[in-house]
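Why do we bother with holo predictions? Because pocket geometry can differ from the apo form. Keep that in mind while you read this record for FE3-S4 cluster.
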Amino acid sequence: MGHQTSADTDTSNKDKSDKISTPAHTNTQSATKKTLFIKTYGCQMNVYDSERMADVLAPVGYRCVDSPEGADLVVLNTCHIREKAAEKVYSELGRIRKLKEKSGGAMKVAVAGCVAQAEGEEIMRRAPVVDLVLGPQSYHKLPEMIAKVSREFGERLETDFDTQETFDLMPETRKVDGPTAFLTIQEGCDKFCTFCVVPYTRGAEFSRPVEQIVAEARTLVAQGVREITLLGQNVNAYHGAAPKLEADESWGHNNWRLGELIKHLAKIGGLDRLRYTTSHPRDMDDELISVHANEPALMPYLHLPLQAGSDRILRAMNRGHTYAEFKDLVARIRAAKPELALSSDFIVGFPGESELDFKRTLEAVAEIGFASSFSFTYSARPGTPGAALPGQVPEDVKSERLARLQKLLTSQQKAFNKSLIGKTLSVLVEGTGRGENELFGRAPYLQGTHFIGDMDLIGQIVSVKITDAGQNSLRGVLSNG
Ligand code: SAH
Ligand code: SF4
Ligand code: F3S
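The structure, written out:
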């Protein structure tokens, strides 16, 4: 399963392209009678949520399939982050309508995710093909809602925020395929950046208790997972209830921050690699930075969105820090962990952004240096403060700035990958590559890495000496040491 999914293809700086993923256990064997097709848009949390929807539907008889054709239930798990992402839902619903007609109306269609949360009523009005609409905190109610619509009565719209319940009622057993998995530890956001819909679609910040996370991590590791990416819209704002154990003195706090959680998870035998995303610069505390320095399981790669280089724009965006503060933070992180590489997110053409402001972004990128980045033109989202600001930037100016920024980011990404040639990196082998006897895995910095090796190595961590590097991927040879 791809590590990076995104809402739009046009604006990302590397291959983060709209990978549509079907939950892993397509071939689950059980006495199933009904078929389920889930299409996932947006961020990694949606990928995680799609898997959880498949998990809650498995016990009531749904088996995942790879195509919507003939499926008993189609779920679109949607993203609202930019206009294009939201519009995709309606065009997909047009295609689904034809399939539903073919099925004589038997197919049930559900819209889930952030578009469902933000404009549930509108979906029902614009797309009568939709049988039910449910927001991200309602997935545990899916079986019940489907039973109701099947009997032609009951609520068709469910967009309450029951974060705690969503996690409590989810089945303990997650089924996964492959050596990597996502695990949501925190959901929602209280930061209210003025461009962003997430605080409205995902609700207030909520952290899962440590014990629940550990139990889920153990379930994953028991199925062969070696790398877990901890997810949260503001993952480093994590502050979950600590385990109720008195034996260890350090366990006296009521809440644990992300650094403590990572140290604890790293003790799980067989769990060799940990990552987390997405972090906010304001929540990078000293403890977390020291965990980067001292915990080998934590991968030396950090996604730290900067968004813009101009202080005026950062302030208008309500990011809560200046560029100098970001630079200082990066210096502290790099001092603690010199081999750590950074990735980031950028928005160009935020309302009021002048050519000079934009140049500050280019200067910031040149000064800091990123191994990889995602960059977007600003998209005014309904209901966010940014949409009402004066000085909206014309589309052609935004596109032109984006092209200039991406040119710089792409050159940095290529240069970073080239700098790895000759180095030996640890690679977690995920599967076979396209070529004969070729294997595919991920390096610590997430690039797809190709090399010749035996199928037995799938699921293992091997050393690969890098011999060649492209924009998104690496090539190398197995190394013995
Ligand atoms: N929680 C993360 C971001 C989640 S959204 C953080 O705090 O950084 C992922 C990225 O989408 C953001 O970092 C931002 O670069 C981009 N984005 C969000 N809203 C956007 C909008 N209205 N227009 C363009 N890009 C946007
Ligand atoms: Fe959106 Fe800002 Fe929250 Fe990130 S921190 S999810 S960009 S409001
Ligand atoms: Fe999109 Fe919602 Fe994720 S808006 S980016 S799916 S949190």
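The mean pLDDT is 89.
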